[in-house]
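Methods, example record. To illustrate the input and output format used throughout this study, we show the complete record for Cytochrome c domain-containing protein. The sequence lines were provided to the predictor; the line carrying structure tokens was produced by it.
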Amino acid sequence: MKKYLFCFVGLMLAAPVVSNAANIQHGRQLFESICAPCHGSNAQGNVGPNIVDQSVKKIEWALNNVGMMKPVKSSNPQLNNVQNIKDISAFLHTLKK
Ligand code: HEC
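The corresponding predicted structure is encoded as:
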């Protein structure tokens, strides 16, 4: 029993630090359904600019300040969740410039 408890605590500690494959996969899904129409399927740019490698901070800034993106935030409540923004950023970091 004790052994399992330690494993569990270990996972809890490791989880927020590392963005694992599941986070990246989740970020990809969010990106493809919400961002790709404007930023391109590989974030290479379309109506909006290339956003490969963008940080969590920059994404949050854009959602609050870019005119075309404000309605995107209000119609997709999952973008109010910081973890979701982190997942999108983790996915964007896997793409090549
Ligand atoms: C309706 C179209 C549209 C959608 C959907 C959209 N964006 Fe944007 N985004 C834009 C436009 C247009 C700009 C550039 C505005 C400018 O340069 O004035 C932009 C700018 C940005 C920037 C700033 C880039 C820079 O270099 O300054 C980031 C980061 C960004 N978008 C991320 C996202 C993410 C992440 C999503 C999905 C959650 C998303 N956008 C969805 C249109 C969109």
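Annotations derived from this record:
Residues 34-35, 37-39, 47-49, 51, 54, 58-59, 62, 66, 68-69, 72, 79, 88 surround heme C (CB under 6 Å).
The chain has one domain: 20-92.
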